[in-house]
Amino acid sequence: MLVKNQLLSLKAYEPGKSVEEIKKDYGLAKITKLNSNENPYGSSPKAAEALANLSSQFAIYPDGGAMNLRAKVASHLDVDEDQIIFGAGLDEVIQIISRALLTPDSNTVMASPTFSQYKLHAVIEGAEIREIATVDGCHDLNTMLSQIDSQTRIVWICNPNNPTGTYVNETALKNFISRVPKETLVVIDEAYYEYVTAEDFPHSLSLLKDFDNVMVLRTFSKAYGLAGLRVGYGVGNKEFIQRLEVTRLPFNTSRLAQIAAEAALEDQDFIQGCVKINEKGLNELQAFCKRHKIDFYPSQANFIFIKTDKGHELYESLLQKGYIVRLFPNGIRITIGTEEENKNLLADFEDIIVKAGTPN
User: Which residues are annotated as modified residue N6-(pyridoxal phosphate)lysine in the UniProt record (predicted)?
Assistant: First the structure.
């Protein structure tokens, strides 16, 4: 069968080995999973309570417009309901945007490294990809701006950036957007928004009032702990959102996801508790790196990126001690775990350093 030529250069997503497989391969009794930036404390108990009595409704299609969830998210964000589009996680929202805007005669601008789905969907749509290397892990906005032309349909800003954890501050972001042509969509992906503590982090939703070409993405997969249920959303200009709705599948978010997200959104005390514990764990890990002269990017997310040309060795050393982290060509990314997991990680990391030296 013939498929798009661009698909021939891509590989399907390959999930890593399961926890049970790793336990068996390495002879380990316990594995601590720190590779996917999940909330180690799970989700609000209110989400589980809301799902408890749904078994009799599995045969019923979900609300295609997610109207109850839409109303609650709109109220929480202080935006209009018709400014929101929902997806099965942000992955689908990114796919919807890419499918709607990108063509073989267009281009898209993004940082490198950044979230891989931006590039993947650009390749699938046959668009030209203009990747701009980060500077100290941060978006190089001036160079990104220089790469925008009349054929640029989307500029992606992952804020905080995945995998580096760095962020674009409010002044820099506003200045950048003001210089982007109004025909080019600027997507601000704030998947880790809830974890941010920096005082100068952008109030990005307020930009929607002044810029019709801005869209903000958020998710219930990270701080809200609902990654397994797949629900994310985008907020933007209402006329543009309505055009995007044409490309959204009719029942793309499940009844379970919608109800769990509604309940999770209402429990902001749970979110704030998770944020405080994450900040403590992040600060401890960053202090550990400073103490041992380990190079890293200061993070505003629930992970830290350690820069090293010995990433594979460090990845294997941690795996042998029971920790799954994410390996990159120039380092590793470690998700912040529970207080106990962080304590154990630092003790085992210390032992690795004693035996092998600083991983730089």
Answer: 222
The alpha-carbon radius of gyration of the chain (Å, integer) is 21
Q: pLDDT tens-digit profile of 105-140?
A: 999 999 999 999 999 999 999 999 999 999 999 999
CA angle 105, 110, 116 (to 5 degrees): 100
How buried is residue 360: exposed, middle or buried, by Cβ count under 10 Å (0-12/13-18/19+)? middle
pLDDT tens figures, 175-225: 999 999 999 999 999 999 999 999 999 999 999 999 999 999 999 999 999
d(CA 168, CA 137): 11
Residue 219 identity (one-letter amino acid): T
- How many angstroms separate the CA atoms of 12 and 19, rounded? 21
65-68 contacts at long range (C-beta below 8 A, 24 or more positions apart): 66/253, 66/258, 68/258, 68/262
Q: Are 32 and 19 in contact (CB under 8 A)?
A: no
